[in-house]
Specification:
Elements (H helix, E strand, L loop, with lengths): L2 H5 L3 E4 L5 H12 L3 E6 L11 E5 L5 H15 L4 E4 L14 H28 L3 E6 L2 H5 L5 H21 L4 E7 L6 H4 L3 H10 L8 H13 L7 E3 L9
Helix pairs in contact: 2-9, 3-4, 4-6
Length: 242
């Protein structure tokens, strides 16, 4: 990395930045004096900051992802960290998952993340390094009733993270995955009280995670230089090692 690049403010691109975790990530990166490029699809962030660049785009369309990366490079000349946070979950047993729902969940949760990784990898390598953080899910590690499409996509994201860590390591590009746990976001707001209680009981600490703690961990992880190819689970659910 050149002295010019090492002395400037760091740039993070967050996908799905208008969601609950995305907004908290943007807030905390900004608080740490990062430049934040915030991708949104339908809803903008209700934040205003000279270090915040909001970018509209559909991550399931490769051409729009490429344009998004180019916009960040034109504006700030670098992409130091990519947080693939955009996600969607449509809960149904497999026999009720129609073709549209299946394609939609794989497109947003896996294909879109791949497009973003692919588009960011070259500029990161050219600038001497970078860090890709993929927001996966415990469902992708262990499976979850009623979430066959979502779990399949998130399991694919875990495999993608491991493969990219091997491919991009020689170019000093780190790739890690984070399992944030169940968070108070619009995605989980539709859970019934019984479903929420069952999730609480699965946690050894008998409580769910918070947006603040997950975002603080991701901001810290983004600054680490010697960690790649790892999966970080941030709640207290326990599963056997595989």
């Amino acid at each position: 990395m050149t002295p010019e690049l090492s002395s400037r403010k760091k740039v993070v691109l967050i996908t799905g930045a208008a969601g609950g975790l995305g907004q908290e990530l943007a807030r905390q990166f900004l608080a740490q004096d990062w430049r934040v490029a915030a991708q949104y699809h339908h809803s903008v962030l209700h934040q205003s900051d000279p270090n915040l660049l909001q970018i509209s785009g559909d991550i399931t369309q490769a051409c729009q992802v490429n344009q998004m990366i180019q916009s960040v490079l034109l504006h700030w000349r670098a992409v130091d960290v990519l947080v693939n946070n955009a996600g969607i979950a449509i809960d149904d047993p497999c026999w009720q998952v129609d073709d549209v729902s299946w394609e939609q969940q794989l497109s947003v949760n896996l294909k879109g993340a791949f497009f973003c990784c692919r588009a960011a990898a070259v500029p990161m390598a050219n600038q001497g390094g970078g860090h890709i953080i993929n927001i996966a899910s415990f469902a992708g590690r262990q499976g979850s009733r009623g979430q066959s499409a979502y779990a399949a996509a998130k399991a694919g994201l875990l495999g993608l993270s491991a493969s990219l860590a091997r491919e991009l390591g020689p170019d000093q590009v780190q790739v890690n995955a984070v399992l944030p746990g169940v968070l108070p976001t619009p995605m989980t707001a539709r859970l019934s009280q019984d479903q929420r209680s069952a999730l609480v009981k699965e946690n050894a600490l008998q409580r769910l995670n918070s947006l603040d703690e997950v975002a603080r961990f991701i901001v810290f992880l983004a600054t680490m230089k010697n960690v790649s190819g790892q999966v970080f689970q941030l709640d207290s659910r326990i599963s056997p090692w595989t």
